[in-house]
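Board notes (copied after class):
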Amino acid sequence: MEDNRETPYRIPRPGARAVVLPRPWAYPVEWRRLDGRGWLSRSIAHEMDQRRLFPWIPVFFGIGIVLLFQADGQPALWAPFGAAASCAAAAVALRRVQAVSIALIAIAALFAGFSAGAIRMRSVAAPALSRIVVTPVTGFIESIEDRPEGKRLLLHVVEMRNVPDAERPERIRVSVRRGIELSPGQLMTGTARLLPPSQPAWPGGYDFARDAYFKGIGAVGSMVGQIRPIAPPPGASSAPTWTLWLAASVDGARNALTERIATSIGGAAGGVGAALVTGKRGLIPEQTNAVLRGAGIYHIVSISGLHMVLAAGTFFWLVRALLALAPGLALSWPVKKIAALAAMVGATIYCIFSGSDVATERSLIMTLVMFGAVMADRPALSIRNLSISALVVLAREPEALLGPSFQMSFSAVAAMMALVPLMHRRVPDGGSSGLVARVASRAARPAFGLVTTTLVASVATAPFAAYHFQSLNPYGLVGNALALPLVSLVAMPCAVLGVLAYPFGLDRPIWQLMGGAVSQVLGVSTWVGGFGGSTLVVSALGSASLVLLSVGLILLTLPASSLRWLAVVPAGVGLACAAVPYRYDVFIDRDGAGAAIRGRDGRLTLVGRPSRFIAEQWLRADGDARSVDDASLRRDARCDRAGCVVAAAGGRWIAFVQEFSAFEEDCRRAAVVVSRLQAPPGCKAGFVWDGGSLKESGATTIRFTPEAVEVRSVRTGSQIRPWSEAAHRPELSPAREGPRRAQPIPEQDLPEEGVSTGEPD
C-alpha cells in the first residue's frame, strides 16, 4: 500500500481494521499572546496613556500609614521626612529613566504617609488616666447627645482634683441621668467616676483607646451625685477658647433643630428624621436601629457621602434651576459654575452644622473636589479626583485609614466608578420599538442604575463589614432599592427646604412631609428585616484575608487595562482564607471577670460575669448570633460558688476560679486555669492566667492546635503604642505571646458530685 502523506487517513488493506487519526488543529496557537513580559509592558503603557498611575500615590501613602501603626512607640520624624525628601529629589533627578522615577515616587509617597501619621500622632498627644478614680471635676460642656436613658457629655476639663496635672485629661466623655437641664458651653461641676478608655475586648477587636487618643479623650465614665452649672470667674484663665465657644454654639443649634424635627414628626420616625438632618442619633430607639441594620440601610442615619451628595446636589440643581428661569442670565453667565460654587458653600455649611465628624469631613472633601472639577471644566467623577480626596483626607487624619468609615466609603465609590459603567453599556434599540417599549425602557434605566450601584457597593464593602462588624446583610440590595428613592427624592430635599424655612418658623409642615417618607422607609426596613437570614453573623475576618481582599479590590478598580485580571489572585486567596476563619477556643477578660470557652459542641460557653459589651464582642468575633441573654450560653458550664469548669474539645477541662479554695483541685486537673485572683505558686495546670498575668497581658485569647497552644494578648511582645495602657503605666511590662508548646494534660476526671449546672451565684 502506498503511504499517502497528503491525507490524514490511511487506506486499510482488505480485512484490516480502519484507524482514524485526529485532524490537525485548525486554529494555530498565537504564542505571542502568552508573552507575559510584553503583555505587562503594553498594559503599563496603556495605564500611562490613560493617566492611571496617579491613583497609586494614595495607595502607597496609605501603606506608609499602615507601617506607622505597626511601629513601636513614636518613631522619629527626621527619618521618614529625610527618606521622603531623598526619594522625591532622586525621582526628579532621574526623571528621564521612567521606570526608576516611578518607583522612587511610589517610595516617596510611602515615606510621606509614614511622616503624616507621625506628625498626627504627636499633634493629638494628651494625658490619659491610667486607673479608675472618683473625683470632683469642673469643665466646659463641649457637646451634648440626648439618649433615651440620659445624656452623654463631652467635657473640656478645667479642674480635676486628686489627679496630677501630668495625668489630667484635656477631654472626658461622661454620661448623666435624665432630667438634668444642661446646655453646650456651660461650665459645670460635679463628682465623676472615671476610668481609662477601654482596650480591645480581644486581640484584633475594636480599639476604643486608639480612637479616643486621636479625639483627645483621656477618660470615660459617669457623673455621680449632684451636678451644678456654675459661672466662670471673671478674668479667669479658665475662660473658654474661641474654638470651644464655636463647637458649643454649633452643638447647641444642632440640639435645638434635632428637638424641633423630632417633636414635629414624632415617634421613631422623628428620631430617624432628625438624624438625617443633624447627625444626632441618640433619639433613635435601639429597636429601630436593629431594623435599619437588618435591612442594610443603617448608613442613611450617618452623615456621610449620601447626605453630602444629596445636600450639595440639591443646592446645585436648585440654584441652577433658579438662574435658568432668567434667559438673559442663562445665556450670559456661567450658570453651571455658579451653581457648583453655591453647592460647595452649602456643603461646607452643612458639614459644620452637622458636627464635622470624620465621615462628614471626608465626604465634604470629596464633594469639594468633585464640584471644583466642574468649575475647572473637568470630569466631576473620576478615579483621579477620588485619589485627590483620599490624599487630602489621609494627610489630615491618617488614623481614618484604619476605620470602617473610610474603608467602606472609598471602596464603594471606587468600585462604582470602575464597574458600574461596564454594567451600563448601551444596547442598541430596535427600530420597531413602540411607544410603550420606549417608555418602559426609560423607566427601567433609573431602576437598573440603582440596582447595579447598590450591588457593586454592597460587594465592595462586604469584606470591611465582615472585618469590623462581623455581620453581613444579604438583603441590603432589596432594602436600598426600595428605601433610597424615598430618601433621595423626598426626605433629603425636604431636609434642605426645612432648614431654609426653620429661621422663619415655617418648617413644621415640611418636617411632617419628610416624616411621612421616613415612616415609609421604616416600613420597608421592617419588611426586609423580617426576611429569614436578613442579618448574617460571621466569624471575624482575619487581617491577612482583609489585606488580600483589599489588594484585589484595588487591582480591580484602579487599572484601566487588562491588569485588572491580576485581582483574581489576591481576591481568590483572600476568599479562601476567609472561608476557614481563625477561631479562638478561649476568650479571657482583661481583669479576669469572665471568660468564653469553646465546649465540646463547638460553641462558646460563658463563665463568670463579663460585661455585656465584652460578651457581645466575643460572640460576634466567633460568628455566634446568640444574644448574651440566651440561656444556652451557660448550659455547659458546671458551676458552684467557688467557680466553674467547662469540658472543652480534646478532653481538656478549662477552670474558672472565683474563690481561692478552688485552686487546689483545679490546678491539679485542669488544662487552663483562669481567675482574677492570684494563683498559688505551686499551681501545676498547663496554663494559668490569674490576676497578675492579666495585669501584664490584658485581654487574652487561647487557641488549641495539635502541635501547640497559641496565646495572644492585647499587649503583645514589647510593642507599646501611645494610646496603650502600658504607655501611661510603665510598671506594666507587655506580655509575650505566640505559639507555646503544649504541655501534657493531666487526667481529666473531675467528679460531678457537688457541682451544679448554671450561672454561678
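Comment from the instructor: Confidence is low (pLDDT under 50) at residues 1-31, 427-432, 732-761. The CA atoms of residues 408 and 464 lie 6 Å apart.
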